[in-house]
Design goal:
Blueprint (H helix, E strand, L loop, with lengths): L1 H10 L26 H40 L6 H19 L19 H28 L16 H9 L1
Helix pairs in contact: 2-4, 4-5
Length: about 180
Amino acid sequence: MAAMLDKMEEDTPQDVPMVKPGDASMASPFTAKAASVAPVTDILKQGRCTLVTTVQMFKILGLLCLSTAYALSVMYLQGVKLSDAQATLSGVLTAGMFYFISNAKPLPQLSPVRPHPSIFCIYFFASLLGQFAVQLGFLIFMYRTALAVMPSEQQQDSESDFAPNLVNSICYLVQ
């Protein structure tokens, strides 16, 4: 081992510092001065918490994008629009929701089940599409129910200006 280290030192240029065994703390993003392995479990808890929180944020963002895309495109053709105040409030509430999710703390005990390491897995897409299908079904059901209850003189076409009515309010609340 010593002969290999000496040969490595000879082969490297003199201006490049040589990392020696035991210098791993220089390359690691954390240092622990405790004599036990307890900091390792804390780092694993923090890492898992960060991973799960990030995946959850991606799921929520994906679901919001899908439902908003439906509401702004397909439902627009049917006369359903959002007012400026509704769109602004929706954006502020979404930003607030992401802020509170980002303040997640790790569990006190490390879970034996490992989280999915990537958002590109069948579980993530199946979960996202399943949640979107439920929300889309509920949105369509509530739209049709509100349309049946609302008087016909309050119905709007896609070219008219925004005017609050039952269908717009129901679709905004469900979205």
